[in-house]
């Protein structure tokens, strides 16, 4: 008798479903799949197999996050996201260093899309600065963008 319920997915099935939507780090998959592990060690075996086949790739995860988020966020916010994914600290540091090189240009572009004019008063200036800070840009960068300093 069919009750209409879907059959329970295996750990590998769940992992592949998650990986089909976007890149996931091994730490992310462990966190998400841990509740479904029925026997100790089964999850580690599944993740080892997926990593051996190239389905889990830390470099691709890092590249994916940077590519998707760099046009919207500052280096410090992206760094937080990469660290939350459990990626290697050295790889995260390299990616953040590369992002810092383009920080000012990216902040200007985001600011232009949202405001596109210098603040008229202190309240508007504060609003613009808080917006950029919430996106993860540093204080020096925010000051240069909002004040229009060294505009190309």
Automatic annotation (TrEMBL):
NCBIfam families: PRK00117.2-5. Its main location: cytoplasm. Transmembrane segments: none annotated. Keywords: Cytoplasm. This is Regulatory protein RecX. It is found in: Cytoplasm. Residues 14-48 form the RecX first three-helical domain. Modulates RecA activity. Residues 57-95 form the RecX second three-helical domain. Pfam families: RecX_HTH1, RecX_HTH2, RecX_HTH3. It comes from Rhodoferax saidenbachensis. Belongs to the RecX family. The keyword Cytoplasm applies.
